[in-house]
Hints:
Blueprint: E1 7-13, H1 18-30, E2 37-41, E3 48-49, E4 61-67, H2 76-79, H3 81-96, E5 100-106, E6 113-116, H4 127-141, E7 149-155, E8 157-158, H5 165-169, E9 174-178, E10 186-187, E11 189-190, H6 192-203, E12 213-216, E13 222-223, H7 224-230, E14 235-239, E15 247-250, H8 253-258, H9 268-279
Parallel strand pairs: 1-2, 1-4, 2-3, 4-5, 5-7, 6-15, 7-12, 8-11, 9-14, 10-15
Antiparallel strand pairs: 10-13
Helix pairs in contact: 1-6, 3-4, 7-9
Amino acid sequence: MTHIPQAADILITGAGGRLGRLLRRAAAREGTGGLRPAFQSRRPGTGLTWAPGQPLSALPHCDTVVALWGRTSGDAAALAENAALVAFGHTVALATGARRLFHLSSAAVYGPGRHLAEGAPLSPVADYGHSKQAMEQEIARLPRTDRIAHCCLRLANVVGADSLAPGLRGSGPVGMDRFDDGTGPLRSYIAPGDLLRVLAGLASLPPDSLPETLNIAAPAPVRMDALVRARGLDLDWRPAPPGATQEVSLDTARLSALLPGAIRHDTAEAMVADWAALEAGQ
């Protein structure tokens, strides 16, 4: 294990993947609003090296845990890990003295739809969305007799950490579904720097002010083809197959009320610029 800090304000677990790396770079670039972050990963050289099975006492005392760990791909059996990790995340929060536990869910729990608010029915269409719905059901079963506030973050696509990321990192052209109206998929997105700002902002709020579920995205959705163009890459259009989802967009009124001004990148160009600077280590 690496040196363990005695205390942190916010512990981000599972930070060794693409999203975790971007968040670490964002924290190094602009800080976390005065909060002391600790980024946990199994991988050496990525911050706090710690793995389940090692002593919980080795983790730093903290005020907030962000459970970033989990599966983003694989079959249904592999994705079942997302629900199985809920109880362990709760154990970590108890062991570290956290008052807030943020569980990373996904916009995929909604299925297709426009301007989906937190109270919308959940109708996932793929195994990943079903696994996150099962995760949310496990969160609902957690005991509420302790002092921990649980908040389920339904995260939109993050620029540089979603299915489009390999294409954005390449030299193009990027394959893209084209729908009957001549446009590509419309999705809610968030820039990685804004996501870190949101996490830090939520970690600064009184625990009893946190909602049980919260959509995390920029206010307006963007077209995935616009992100490709913002990167200066060409598109390789293909007809959208039957059943392809044209729009998944989130209502972010609740987020805007909690953290006004936290989202600074609200266009495809601004989001890609934020990600590209982090990708380049700037």
